[in-house]
Amino acid sequence: MATTCAQAIKRWEAKSEGTPAAEATEMNLCNQSIAKLDSKALGTLKKCEKLSLSTNMIDKMIALPGMKELKILSLGRNNLKKIEKLEDVSGTLEQLWLSYNQIASLDGLSCLENLTTLYLSNNALSSLAELEKLKANKKLRDVLFIGNPFYAEVGSKEEARIQILKRLPNLKKIDGEFVKPSEIEAAQAPSET
Fold first, then answer.
1. CA–CA separation, 105 and 123 (whole Å)
2. If you placed Cys at 6, which of 41, 140, 163, 181 could pair as Cys (CB 3.0 to 4.6 Å)?
3. How far apart are CA 182 and CA 88, in angstroms?
4. Tens digits of per-residue pLDDT, 134-170?
5. 156/92 Cα distance (integer angstroms)
6. Which residues are CB-neighbours of 132 under 8 A, at least 6 positions away?
């Protein structure tokens, strides 16, 4: 049976020994069988900086009005197909964790002006061209893309890292490993015709 966000928040409050959800800076609502997000219930989390909603059954992102402090949003291991409605947290969100979903497009991220970390491993990104959409995210430094179909397009993990760097030259970390000077050099080298 599905759990509502309001029910999950009440459970969290019951376990938190009297801390009201509205005062919490971290909210862990993972593995609660939540099927739908609820703006009204989540909007009460005024001081929340890290919201963890991984391992649920969520199939759609919603607007998050009222979450003016949100820095980390974790929605991995759900049923998301699309990134959307992040405008309300565009000025504060620094990390977005979306691994193990069914996301095929990087639309919906350009509004995140402070995004430094994007985890999107094991999704449905089939083309390296999707990475071009991340050029607007000037502060992006750490990405996780392994397990997406576009890796088959390039042949090897090493070549994938170089291709990612060609499109996003400011990255410091790809797939959990720091970028090496030799990779930066290879990404900056002129393409052979």
1. 10
2. 41
3. 39
4. 999 999 999 999 999 999 989 889 999 999 999 999 9
5. 35
6. 167
